[in-house]
Amino acid sequence: MxxxxxxxxxxTKATGYENVRLVVLDxxxxxxxxxxxxxxxxxxxxxxxxxxxxxxxHAAKLEYVRAxxxxxxxxxxxxxxxxxxxxxxxNVAFEKAYGQLVDGGRIAPIPGAREAVEELRADGLTVVxxxxxxxxxxDAILDALGWRDLVALTLCPADAGGRGRPYPDxxxxxFLRTGAADDVRQIAVAGDTAYDMRSGVRSGAGVVAGVLxxxxxxxxxxxxxxxxxxxSVAELPALLRASGR
Length: 245
Prior knowledge:
Blueprint: E1 3-4, E2 22-26, E3 32-33, H1 37-48, H2 56-67, H3 73-81, H4 84-103, E4 108-109, H5 113-122, E5 126-130, H6 135-145, E6 153-155, H7 169-178, E7 187-191, H8 194-203, E8 207-211, H9 218-223, E9 228-230, H10 236-242
Parallel strand pairs: 1-9, 2-5, 2-7, 5-6, 7-8, 8-9
Antiparallel strand pairs: 3-4
């Protein structure tokens, strides 16, 4: 069953999602607004690897980056550039460019995101932030927002054996490392991409909520297995309460 929610006041009660104890939230596009910095950082990385901006090759690679928002960035670059050395070079250039943009004050919280996390924690839930970026970039974002102490745990692909989304590894790492839940069905996952949804579904999470503040639309989120589609993460606390929390 998919419950679509466009406003916090329109939450529809679902069944079968009781006793959520652990919430795993994506960052860029879900809790963090970055204003298209992924594409800007990709352009910088592509230039370093000799991909001519405005070329057909550049356009095709950028389209792939857009289509795979939410996936581990090193996995994206392995697909785009083939051999491991070039993929690693592209990833380093991307992370450097993204970090510089973050340091330039180009990011902000999604409206209501911090408050939502605080509500979830006040309700007794454990909250984890996850990302497809490398740890250095994740830390730069956390520092820029003053979020270092906001949640119990933050995870990047390297913290889960190196595999990012759409694999379930980061969700399962959160489950194992926090000890907050006894059953994977007590996990709620929220994200803005199809890759977030697939990761949540594959982990066995009881709630897999897509949000409409980022890369993918409601149809893409639903097709990838979202149990709910929300206007933003700000609606998640009310959804979980209505779901029998």
